[in-house]
Amino acid sequence: MAYFNQMDNVQYEGPHSTNAFAFKYYNPNEQVNGKTMEEHLRFAVAYWHTFVEDGSDPFGVGTMERPWDVYTGMDLAKARVEAAFEMFEKLGVPYFCFHDVDIAPEGNTLRETNKNLDIIVSMIKDYMKDSKTKLLWNTANNFTHPRFIHGAATSNNADVFAYTAAKVKKGLEIGKELGGQNYVFWGGREGYETLLNTDMKLELDNLGRFFHMVVNYAKEIGYDGQFLIEPKPKEPMKHLYDFDVATGYAFLQNYDLTDHFKFNIEANHATLAGHTFEHELHYARIHNMLGSVDANQGDLLLGWDTDEFPTDLYSTTLAMYEILKNEGLGKGGLNFDAKVRRGSFKPEDLFHAHIAGMDSYAVGLRVAQRLLKDKALENILEERYSSYSEGIGSAIVQNKTDLPQLENHALDLTKIEHQSGHLEKIKSVLNQYLLTEFSQ
Question: Which of the residues are catalytic?
Fold first, then answer.
């Protein structure tokens, strides 16, 4: 059955096109520094927001008009697979992502749930045989059901820990069967509300034990996907153990897991943590921990995870700057963990949203590549830190000095010459590169 009859395959028509169902800047075959845009950007559709989200919020019921919602139970799950691969083909996306409960309903027991998953995974596998769209990553939803009220791998209840582990075990098996390139861990309930009833040391130790079990089982079954941790600072838990990249990196170091995990960084989560998106990408990159990206944006006037489609060209440019400096995302990609607004309830709005996001990152890619080619920012950094390229600065970075020698250098200094940070100039350079992209 077809669910998007009114839409043709989306094509690149260029910046002057007035076709709302055409790419203006994303040309999948365009070469950028030796790779196609498709190879650079590795776009993925998020199954949950696109095919499951109903538009409900704390103040109102769902508004989304979805032709597959005439079904229920397993029939609905099968219809969503049909709709998904139709949309993947029409958008031309190379990847998709899902949680286990997105693709199949839970049963009364985990055994029943796994049977439902087996049926739908078999169906997805059949569709993938004739599709260019592959699995970027899958994960287990260990946060929605009431059983996770006190956490999952950090729960005070050992039965919940076991249930969590069993769901992830199944997820790894599904990932292997479908050829998933990554497996993501988002610990939405891995945190606490108050220390008055929390044994933080036990919870963190258990989380470390859990991740080691995951690593061991992946080796046992020959699963070679990349493991990704997705940081988030709050919502739903007041204190989450993976607040941001730095906190997550410290956890991985403490539990000897840095060789097995990287980070899946979401733009909206970065801003909720009080950081910019590029800060989180940069911190992960300089520690060789940048694995994948959830491409969205938040509303800075709201204090929660709004998961909007990315249209901020300044942000997409700085994000792609970090990704290019990382020499790409490897097995990772740009997953649109984003949802249309509650008032954008028509099926065609799903296409408008993805086209906008894909065009925005295509612009970011092209501008970031020109910035790097011209060394527009590198030259500024080189000049700003030039004092470390000679004299006492060179001795510092080469570990050829000590406190007494530094004291001798400092004692007779009469004047320290500073350079201007030129921040306004730098921002104008970024604006110039962005505006030049649209004047060509």
Answer: 99, 102
